[in-house]
Amino acid sequence: MFGYIRETKGRKRFSVVRMCKALKVSETGYYKWKRTGNKPKAWQLLLVKIHKILDEHPDNQNYGIKRILIALEQRGERVSRSTVIRAMRKGNLLHASPRRPEGVTKAEEKAQRPKNLLQRDFSATGPNEKWLTDITQIPCLDGTLYIAPIFDCFGGEIIALAMESTMKKELCIQAVKEAYRTRNPGSGVIIHSDAGSQYTSELYKKTLGGFHAVQSMSDVGKCYDNARMESFFATLKKEKLYQMNTMKRTREDVKTIVWRYVMVYYNRQRISTVNKGGLPPTMFRIQAAARQAAA
C-alpha cells in the first residue's frame, strides 16, 4: 500500500495526505516506511553472513544453529541463539532431526566379554587415552559397504577408517592396525567397542594384546555405552550419505566420498560443538600439542 502511494504521488497531483485518507492508512506510518522500508532488516543482514559461512564449503550446508553461532562468534559477531534461529527460519535453513542409525554388529552370547571401563565417560585429557570403534553399513550399487572407524575421545578425531565389503573381524583389526600406524601411541590405550562377535573374537583380542591396548566393551543392547561413536555415524549419514542415493554409486565411489568427508572436512574443517572455540578435531589436537610444547 505504501509503495503504491509513493509511485502514485509522482505521477498524479494527489498529496500524500489525501491518498492516506482515501486508502485509510496512517500518514505517519507512510513516512516511517519511507525512511526504513528500503533498508535491509537486521535478520536479513545476518542471513547474508550465515550464507557466507555455509558457502565456504559444500558440507557446511549441514550446519545447524549451534555451529552457526560458533562460526559467527569466530568472526566477531555476537548474536543470541533466538536471533540466529529467527534468521535461519526465515531463510529456510533449519534442518530436521537426523535419522537414528541402527546397530550392525551382533553380540555373541557365549563369548567372554571384557568389562565396560568407560561407563559412558568419554572425556580425555590428551590424545590416545580412549579410542572408540564400531561398524556401520552403507547400501551401494554393487553391494553393502561396511565402515569401521577409530575415534579418539580427545577432540573427537577419526584417526583410522577401514572400509570393506564384509563385516568380519578382519575389518576391525584393519582399523586398529591403521590407527597404531598413524599414531604410534605406545601402551595402555583403552579401545572401547560394542559387544559384537567381531570384537569378542580371539584374533581381535590377540591384536589388541600385541599393541598392549586395554579392551573395554559396552553392555549388550546398551547403545549409549558407545554414544559418541554412534553420534559420529549419525553425523556422517545425515550430513553426507543421506544427501545422495548411495544405491546408484559403487562401493569404491562411496569409499572415496566417505574418506574425503571424514579425513579432510570432518577432521580439519568442520566446526566442532564440543571443542573449545569450535576447533575441528585435528586442529584441536595440534593446538593442544603446541601449548604443551610451549609450557
Automatic annotation (TrEMBL):
GO biological process: DNA integration
Biased composition (Basic and acidic residues): 99-112
Domain of life: Bacteria
Pfam families in alphabetical order: HTH_21, rve, rve_2
Region (Disordered): 96-116
GO MF, one annotated term: nucleic acid binding
InterPro entries in alphabetical order: HTH-like_dom, Integrase_cat-core, RNaseH-like_sf, RNaseH_sf, Transpos_IS3, Transposase_IS3/IS150/IS904
Domain Integrase catalytic: residue ranges: 123-289
PANTHER family xrefs: TRANSPOSASE INSF FOR INSERTION SEQUENCE IS3B-RELATED, TRANSPOSASE INSO FOR INSERTION SEQUENCE ELEMENT IS911B-RELATED
The protein, known as: Integrase catalytic region
